[in-house]
């Protein structure tokens, strides 16, 4: 489980500011959507691969450690790999969330659930229970690779995957971005224009001249 310091630092930023810090961040495709009341996730991935059978997800609910985020490679199949019982079981074990590249059901419960739940589909049809599935292997979820132990971050904007060795520096950069944005927002609220808070003119001139440049706060 991650320490409370990292969790608190993530609370002050968001996935957009982390993506601004690094354009190579892996972002799950937007077809995987938040289904629950709480959509904020920060935790290590506990990976599962299964196809049309949800027994592997049940095994993962029981095997994962508190704070782990179940990341299910369900092949994008429109079959429910989990529902209310699995969400309740994950809450009982203190897990950090469930992300399914496939279906989820029992949305009447899930939409008010404090466990973060993301899925590609909502469907009433559950899979079978005759296959063990594969746990803690490298998978693909939402079109991006995910390895066991990599950090999953999610909020209302979407889900990203981060190398745990980089999380500290990314959170530093994201916090700096949020601070700069807050200053610009205050200036805009006071009547300033975007060009007064960003190097629009200088950046335009540099690009017209074929020079390397970056849009930045001023």
Automatic annotation (TrEMBL):
It catalyses: oxaloacetate + H(+) = pyruvate + CO2; 4-hydroxy-4-methyl-2-oxoglutarate = 2 pyruvate. Substrate binds at residue 105. Keywords: Magnesium, Metal-binding. GO terms for molecular function: 4-hydroxy-4-methyl-2-oxoglutarate aldolase activity; metal ion binding; oxaloacetate decarboxylase activity. SUPFAM superfamilies: RraA-like. It is an enzyme of class 4 (lyase). InterPro entries: RraA/RraA-like, RraA/RraA-like_sf. Homotrimer. Belongs to the class II aldolase/RraA-like family. This is Putative 4-hydroxy-4-methyl-2-oxoglutarate aldolase. It comes from Nocardia arthritidis. The lineage of its organism: Bacteria, Bacillati, Actinomycetota, Actinomycetes, Mycobacteriales.
């Amino acid at each position: 489980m991650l320490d409370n310091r990292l969790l608190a630092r993530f609370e002050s930023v968001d996935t957009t500011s982390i993506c601004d810090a690094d354009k190579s961040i892996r972002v799950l495709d937007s077809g995987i959507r938040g289904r629950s009341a709480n959509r904020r996730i920060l935790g290590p991935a506990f990976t599962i691969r299964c196809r049309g059978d949800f027994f592997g997800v049940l095994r993962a609910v029981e095997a994962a450690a508190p704070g782990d985020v179940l990341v299910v490679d369900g092949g994008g199949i429109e079959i429910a790999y989990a529902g209310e019982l699995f969400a309740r079981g994950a809450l009982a074990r203190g897990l950090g969330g469930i992300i399914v590249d496939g279906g989820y059901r029992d949305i009447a419960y899930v939409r008010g659930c404090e466990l973060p739940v993301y899925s590609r589909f909502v469907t009433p049809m559950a899979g079978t229970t005759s296959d063990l599935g594969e746990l803690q292997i490298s998978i693909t979820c939402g079109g991006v690779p995910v390895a066991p132990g990599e950090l999953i971050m999610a909020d209302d904007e979407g889900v990203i995957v981060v190398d745990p060795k980089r999380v500290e520096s990314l959170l530093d950069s994201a916090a700096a971005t949020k601070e700069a944005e807050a200053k610009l927002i205050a200036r805009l609220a006071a009547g300033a224009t975007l060009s007064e808070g960003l190097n629009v003119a200088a950046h335009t001139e540099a690009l017209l001249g074929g020079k390397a440049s970056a849009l930045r706060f001023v």
